[in-house]
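Reopening this one. Same input as before:
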Amino acid sequence: MIRIVSIAALLCLLVLVLYLPSAQPPERFLAQIRSEHQAMEALWGETPALRILDRALVLQGAAQEATPIPPTAGASAASGVDGAVAREMASVNRRLFGNSYFRAIDALVLLAAFRLSAMLEWLPWMAAFLAAAVADGAISRVIKSKEFLHHDPERFALYASLAILLTCGGVVALVLPASLHPLVAPAGLSALALLWGRSVAHFHRRG
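Same output, byte for byte:
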């Protein structure tokens, strides 16, 4: 069951992430970033909001460096046959990667980086709760094992599947160009921690 849910959720996630840049222009993602940055300023203040934006730009830069798109800078510096080939390849690259779809992908990546950066801003506040939820599940599993109580594989599969679906839903929320309340991130992290804890509690422990 867990494998089926994982494969189905990942396929739906892949289709949606590839579809969004074709359905929305790059300006839509950038406008969403500006709107959420203003909301972050109202919630956190100017300095934390600027820190979130700066971290998002760093994350986007790291993502761009990891892409296999070849750079076009310096293509006209060469001369002769090499220069002609370099200019032709640069022209092909501009036509292939400079269209609206790939510019929308860049804007989508920036939106995802911005929301991920905002989520990281919550992490120091949520770390204790996340650790406590998982530790509670682990302790419950140990207690059941020592008391010779049967674990419930159906509940484990249910909680694990819900955690997978929530994780995929969180990834969709990172790239969806729709207004999200700033408190959605900590609420999602809290729910995911509780599901992880319940999954660990019902996982079969040998010995």
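So the earlier flakiness isn't reproducible anymore. For the record, The two ends are 25 Å apart (CA to CA).
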